[in-house]
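TA notes, week 10

Several of you asked for a full example with nothing omitted. So below is the full record: structure tokens for the whole chain, then the designed sequence directly under it. When grading your own attempts, check the secondary structure regions first.
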């Protein structure tokens, strides 16, 4: 199309120039012949007539010459613009290697140089964008794999322990998270339950929780008490992360269903809540000592034992649940969670956890999570045959 426009422009310019030349030449020649006829009389008129044929031939020749000259001049002006237009078209069609080189006026050559500079800059940008996209896709793929690995570490369902009803749920703020929980059947009706929360979120937190979970899994069955287990985990973590400022909070509890009692130890984790059938049966499972794991080399932890009454519920959670923020920046809060626990008395643990999940989702209103959220519930029911499936 650009070529057709250039050709039409050349022809138009050519005709205009040729017509102008012919009119000027004809006007000058006619004035000359009129002067001869007036001066020489009839002989001059005969001379004029004789030269009319010469005048016609000269005019035709001048018109043809003017057309050729102006056509050449018109193409000389339009051709660089045609080349520049063709370069833009080829670049737009994906030929990013194409460049425009012109020998023309300074202004037109300046346009060609600007086009080539733009083409180089755009080509470099596209290459950088492609590399960035490939890097992002690789990171996203690695995060998906990490998320799958982390999900595989969480129990697919709680173990079946007579007299205990069990439930658990976790939702990371990102693809991978820093919260974890697990159950461990210790035999003879005893159950180990752990919940942990690493500093931060995302991949660094996930790596720390994976390391902590691995140590806990390796030592839990051979260590006598929860406090001793936390001491050994702390020493191992301190060797690897003590100087980095990273740490993990943890609550570990052993439930002895036949004896109707629990024994627990705390490493800086927010205290779980124990609720009974009646309002008077309510307390937080605190500890007077116990720094987060990985902070101090010789951290001290204590054991605490409590008897269980029928239908006692121990509800463990990470602070990402109570700190979940709504659009107005208000936190979900411990009191709001406790209200759902109290109002859900008599329901199954799955239903109680469902109430809390629905309530916190309503509070967040689709906003991105501030932190990972995890909850684990253990209820003592003397007549229960086994636990219930974990909520997903």
């Amino acid at each position: 199309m650009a070529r057709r426009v250039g050709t039409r422009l050349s022809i138009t310019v050519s005709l205009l120039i040729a017509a102008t030349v012919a009119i000027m030449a004809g006007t000058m020649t006619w004035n000359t012949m009129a002067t001869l006829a007036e001066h020489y009389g009839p002989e001059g008129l005969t001379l004029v007539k004789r030269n009319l044929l010469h005048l016609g031939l000269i005019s035709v020749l001048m018109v043809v010459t003017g057309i050729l000259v102006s056509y050449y001049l018109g193409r000389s002006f339009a051709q660089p613009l045609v080349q520049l237009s063709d370069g833009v078209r080829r670049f737009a069609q994906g030929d990013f290697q194409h460049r425009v080189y012109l020998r023309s006026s300074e202004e037109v050559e300046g346009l060609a140089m600007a086009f080539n500079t733009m083409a180089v800059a755009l080509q470099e940008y596209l290459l950088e964008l492609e590399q960035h996209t490939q890097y992002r896709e690789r990171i996203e793929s690695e995060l998906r794999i990490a998320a799958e690995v982390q999900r595989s570490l969480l129990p697919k369902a709680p173990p079946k322990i007579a007299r205990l009803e069990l439930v658990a749920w976790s939702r990371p703020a990102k693809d991978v998270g820093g919260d974890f929980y697990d159950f461990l059947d210790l035999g003879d009706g005893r159950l180990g339950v752990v919940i942990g929360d690493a500093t931060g979120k995302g991949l660094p937190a996930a790596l720390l929780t994976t390391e902590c979970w691995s140590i806990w899994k390796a030592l839990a069955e051979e260590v006598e008490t929860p406090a001793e287990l936390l001491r050994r985990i702390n020493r191992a973590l301190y060797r690897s992360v003590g100087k980095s400022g990273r740490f993990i909070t943890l609550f570990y509890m052993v439930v002895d269903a036949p004896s109707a009692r629990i024994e627990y130890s705390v490493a800086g984790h927010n205290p779980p809540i124990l609720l009974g059938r009646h309002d008077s049966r309510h307390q937080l499972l605190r500890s007077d000592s116990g720094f987060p794991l990985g902070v101090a080399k010789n951290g001290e932890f204590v054991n605490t034992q409590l008897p269980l009454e029928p239908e006692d519920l121990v509800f463990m959670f990470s602070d990402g649940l109570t700190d979940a923020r709504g659009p107005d920046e208000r936190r979900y809060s411990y009191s709001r969670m406790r209200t759902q626990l109290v109002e859900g008395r008599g329901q199954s643990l799955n239903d109680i956890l469902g109430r809390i999940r629905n309530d916190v989702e309503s509070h967040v209103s689709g906003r991105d999570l501030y932190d990972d959220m995890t909850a684990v519930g253990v209820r003592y029911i003397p007549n229960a045959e086994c636990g219930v499936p974990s909520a997903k």
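The chain has two domains: 2-98, 156-380. Use that as a sanity check on your answer.
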